[in-house]
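In response to the reviewer comment on reproducibility (Comment 2.3), we provide here a single inverse folding case reported in full, input and output, so that an independent group could reproduce the run without further information from us. The structure tokens appear first.
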């Protein structure tokens, strides 16, 4: 027992001495510390990046396009500096940096389209760090739009797919549209996969079959029984003259379009949003229309008088002023519709429709009722130019209370415009025309310069009687410009 205790005590003392020796050995060898620093250095692990993601630059934006990078890789960036230009669903907006640092890596190149919100588009590093050693996230971090950012490479010609196997075994049930499509293209309906009720082959089933069918025959599948004679079957007969396929074939890129083909045009973000809002407006808003002829002779004479004093304004400027003053006199029209019901607005902001290469956009002239015609003219010209250049800020085209669309400069006599939700009305302006009319005494003729305006109103907010009173007061303000100064 005593011997065992003695040996155990000696073993413990030997272990303590060995541990002290190891500490001294590590302390006297500086290369150990260098190795440790190497494995912990950014050169080995990479510099931790500051992530730059696709932001939401407008309330309705769901994805954007990278138009141009304003900074290069390795260039210093300060908070507030412009990083890149992004095309939203409304305009081209400059994206600003939220941090100080160095732009290390651009993940989404110029021309990347349909980049979803939150997608990683670039990496930054803090000041003083080596931007070339930035740690690149795994590919799945930028997967939503990586394929969109890659350059377009023509795909290799795929091998022809194997012919589909017959999917139906019982009696065939085809919708009239599906029967017409399959008969026209000479496709066997037994190859279609029915998705309709009780095994019905629908139009969509027929279209899906056409996409997967390698080479449909021109002879109808439901042909008459073959003749008993052993004569060889004639070749596929062409379709009768005058008939055409239900789906036009897509034209081949790089070759002139052949007759009966079409070319797919990619829709911009602006076009998609316009399509959504127009569809929403026409399907959810009960449109009512009312028209009136306004005599703009006094306005045109006033324009000539102002031009002599080097004050240039347009008839449209007077229309904007007249609409704003009328809304001030009739606040019950200055309303919008929300999910809970009508909302009365305290401000009068007039949206003017401006046509651009990318679509229609409506910049806003704020507090138009409190501005003079000359100030309205200057604001309208500046906003229209910014709209055509795609430089409008979100606050310059969001929040209008009443819209005006003028096609008079194109010679349009009159038209009906679509309401811009959630607004209640839009005023459509036609061109002016000279007409002879009887005077008040019904004996003398005089010339009037008439212009047709049509009010499209939301029937839930502005009924026919209120719309008629609005147009009557608008006409009075426009025909007597001095009333607008007194209102």
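Designed residues, in position order:
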């Amino acid at each position: 027992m005593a011997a065992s205790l003695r040996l155990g005590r000696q073993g413990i003392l030997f272990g303590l001495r060995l541990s002290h020796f190891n500490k001294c050995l590590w302390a006297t060898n500086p290369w150990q510390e260098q190795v440790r620093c190497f494995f912990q250095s950014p050169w080995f692990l990479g510099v931790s990046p500051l992530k730059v993601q696709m932001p939401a630059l407008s309330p309705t934006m769901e994805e954007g396009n990278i138009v141009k990078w304003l900074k290069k890789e390795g260039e210093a960036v300060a908070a507030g500096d412009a990083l890149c230009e992004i095309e939203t669903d409304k305009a081209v907006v400059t994206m600003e940096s939220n941090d100080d640092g160095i732009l290390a890596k651009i993940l989404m190149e110029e021309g990347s389209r349909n980049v979803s919100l939150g997608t990683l588009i670039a990496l930054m590093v803090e000041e003083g760090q080596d931007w070339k050693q930035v740690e690149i996230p795994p590919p799945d971090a930028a997967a939503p739009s990586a394929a969109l950012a890659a350059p377009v490479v023509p795909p290799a010609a795929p091998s022809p797919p194997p012919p589909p196997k017959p999917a139906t075994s019982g009696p065939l049930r085809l919708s009239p549209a599906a029967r017409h499509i399959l008969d026209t293209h000479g496709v066997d309906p037994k190859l279609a996969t029915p998705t309709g009720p009780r095994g019905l082959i629908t139009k969509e089933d027929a279209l899906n079959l056409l996409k997967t069918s390698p080479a449909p025959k021109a002879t109808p599948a439901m042909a008459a029984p073959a003749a008993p004679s052993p004569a060889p079957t004639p070749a596929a007969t062409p379709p009768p003259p005058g008939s055409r396929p239900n789906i036009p074939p897509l034209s081949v890129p790089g070759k002139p379009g052949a007759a009966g083909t079409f070319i797919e045009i990619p829709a911009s973000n602006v076009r998609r949003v316009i399509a959504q809002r127009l569809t929403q407006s026409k399907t959810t808003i009960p449109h009512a229309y009312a028209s009136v002829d306004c005599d703009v002779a006094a306005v045109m004479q006033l324009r000539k008088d102002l031009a002599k004093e080097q004050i240039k304004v347009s008839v449209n400027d007077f229309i904007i002023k007249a609409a704003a003053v009328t809304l001030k006199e009739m606040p019950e029209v200055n309303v919008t519709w929300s999910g809970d019901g009508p909302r009365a607005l305290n401000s009068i902001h007039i949206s003017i429709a401006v046509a651009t290469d990318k679509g229609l956009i409506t910049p806003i002239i704020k507090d138009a009722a409190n501005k003079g015609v000359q100030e309205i003219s200057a604001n309208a010209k500046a906003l229209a130019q910014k709209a055509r250049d795609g430089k409008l800020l979100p606050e310059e085209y969001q929040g209008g209370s009443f819209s005006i669309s003028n096609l008079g400069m194109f010679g349009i006599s009159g038209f009906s415009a679509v309401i811009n939700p959630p607004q209640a009305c839009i005023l459509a302006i036609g061109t002016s025309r000279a007409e002879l009319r009887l005077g008040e005494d019904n004996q003398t003729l005089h010339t009037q310069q008439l212009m047709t305006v049509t009010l499209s109103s939301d029937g839930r907010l502005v009924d026919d009687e209120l719309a008629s009173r609005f147009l009557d007061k608008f006409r009075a303000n426009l025909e007597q410009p001095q009333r607008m100064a007194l209102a």
